[in-house]
Structures are given as C-alpha cells and as structure tokens.
Specification:
The protein is mostly helical. It has a single domain, classed as Winged helix-like DNA-binding domain superfamily/Winged helix DNA-binding domain (Arc Repressor Mutant, subunit A), CATH 1.10.10.10. It contains 4 helices and 3 strands, in the order αβααββα. Strand 2 and strand 3 form a beta hairpin.
Length: 82
C-alpha cells in the first residue's frame, strides 16, 4: 500500500476525528461519550463492528484515548490529524 492509500480502518478513524472536531467542536483533551459517537456514526452510515475497529485503530495511532469517565478523548496528535 502506498503512503497515499489509506486503509479502511484509517479512513473510518479519520471520519471519527472529523465528527469529533468539525461536527462536535471538540479540541485536544475533550471527550465524547461512546453512545453519542455511535449515534453520530450511525447517522453517517457507519455500523457498530466498523466503529469498534476504527476506534481501536485511532487508539493504536495515538489519536484517541480512553478518558477518566469512559469517554473517548481526543489527543493532541488526533486533533492535529484533521
């Protein structure tokens, strides 16, 4: 895969970041509940199995982390990706 090609997990993970940053107005350190993220992604046609893989991919890349209250927290790195 060339550097210009993105995996489907990468594409979905970046869509999650787009939703968190551009639709929800979150900044680095801000969090979003998994339930709210599921609702937003469902609206975008992304299902639960894809979501779980994309969230794990974003965590593996350092774009998201688990927050102290069970929310998905946007990292500085994740904020900069968008």
């Amino acid at each position: 895969m060339s550097s210009k090609e993105l995996s489907s997990e990468d594409t979905l993970a970046k869509r999650i970041l787009f939703i968190m940053i551009n639709e929800q107005g979150l900044r680095a350190g801000d969090g979003m509940s998994p339930d709210n993220l599921v609702r937003d992604l469902t609206r975008h046609g992304i299902g639960q199995p894809e979501l779980q893989q994309a969230v794990q991919h974003a965590k593996d890349r350092g774009w998201l982390r688990d927050g102290p209250y069970g929310e998905l927290q946007l990292t500085e790195t994740g904020f900069a990706v968008d």
